[in-house]
Amino acid sequence: MVAIKAQSNNASQGASILERYALAKEAGFKAVETGFPFGHTLEQVKKAKESAGIEQVLINLKTGDVSKGELGVTAIPGKENEFKENLQVTIDYANAVGAKKIHIMAGKMENVTSSNWETYENNLKYAADVLKNVNLLGVIEPINQHSVPKYFLSDYGKAVDIIKRIGSEHLKLQLDIFHLQHICGDLSHNIKNLMPYVGHVQIAQVPNRNEPDVPGEINYPYILQHLEANGYNDWIGLEYKPAKGSKDGLKWIASYGYSL
């Protein structure tokens, strides 16, 4: 199955997130995932999604002041209450649009200390318990340092260790193959080894984060088959910047033998 991030649709440049639901549906998608809809009420977002007649798979955690480059406070000591408030607000939006997954972003910081890791894990424990009560899934995503310098979580080993220690079915790994290639490579073995912990998958070509079929480092016909062979049968988010325009950039799906 294939989903797209509503905010990743180049045809919607300049469009609000409310308009992008309809644009994604017009392009043929059955589902979307989105960032947090800053500046729009829960009622507005719910109405736009329902009017478009499209499913929502995932929503990003409310992340703080995006104008300052903030990408979450999950790993920032002293901001635990802000994290809890952001989580609850995001849960409210997720329930409104029917999204079953929340991407819990970690944040960016200059100097990482043990206190950051302790805060991060404690907040994720809290989130897992809360999400269990509302039957939602939290996912955490290592992000490479080329794309987002100083992002806190860029280590798959540490991400999996935390997931294992917390031991909740409501906290898993968001596996973006683009980031996996940048950070680790060795995709065949890493996908197989990480799959028991994976709750969501995204794809894009490396190095320029374009469509899977543009020239690049990753053989996506093989990788998509490999994901399926290793047990992944859920939505795949198209977390890329279309080099060919959004609609023309979707032709690879049919050429690979898939459908939207």
* Basic shape: globular
CATH fold descriptor: TIM Barrel
Number of domains: 1
CATH superfamily: Divalent-metal-dependent TIM barrel enzymes
Distance between the termini: 7 Å
> Helix tally?
9
- What structural category do the secondary elements indicate? alpha/beta
Mean pLDDT: 92
Main β-sheet, spatial strand arrangement: 1-2-3-4-5-6-7-8
Fraction of helical residues: 25-40%
Report the uncertain regions.
5-11
Chart the SSEs and their pairings.
Blueprint: E1 2-5, H1 17-26, E2 31-34, H2 42-52, E3 55-60, H3 80-97, E4 101-103, H4 114-134, E5 137-140, H5 156-166, E6 171-176, H6 177-183, H7 187-194, E7 198-203, H8 220-229, E8 236-238, H9 251-255
Helix pairs in contact: 1-2, 2-3, 3-4
Describe the model.
The protein has one domain: TIM Barrel, CATH 3.20.20.150. It is 39% helix and 14% strand. It has 9 helices and 8 strands. The protein has an 8-stranded parallel barrel, surrounded by 5 helices. Helix 1 (17-26) packs parallel to helix 2 (42-52) and helix 2 packs parallel to helix 3. It is globular. Residues 5-11 have low confidence and may be disordered. Belongs to the hyi family. It comes from Papilio xuthus. Its EC number is 5.3.1.22.
